[in-house]
Amino acid sequence: MNLIEEFNDYRAMMNEKIMAADNKVLKRIFNLDTNAFAEGALDVKTKEMLGLACSMVLRCDDCVKYHLGKCKEVGLNKTEIFEVFSIATLIGGSIVIPHLRRASEYWEELENQ
Fold first, then answer.
1. Fold of 3-112
2. Which positions ≥6 away from 40 have C-beta within 8 Å?
3. For the chain, what are the domain ranges?
4. Carboxymuconolactone decarboxylase-like domain: from which residue to which, for each copy (predicted)?
5. The pLDDT value given to residue 66
6. List of the chain residues with pLDDT < 50
């Protein structure tokens, strides 16, 4: 199984288990997340770039992978992705570099799909 399938399969399996718990607060948080990234005053592409940059600065590898996948879905290219990477690394500082490495690897996998 490749890096992308492993991430997506695990995420889907755990989200199913979490939703099966039928916790109203968690369901509302998940719904809020979905709605926040929907088309609005900002287009989805911009929102995904923001999500990616914030995730890198916060050093959440799962979030970075998720937003990289969404960025690929909405048509970002490698040049655009690396501009987002550069802003996130500038704002987050050198501590973001290990996450930048993993993000670069994951983006390469997405491009090769």
1. AhpD-like (1.20.1290)
2. 47
3. 3-112
4. 25-103
5. 98
6. none
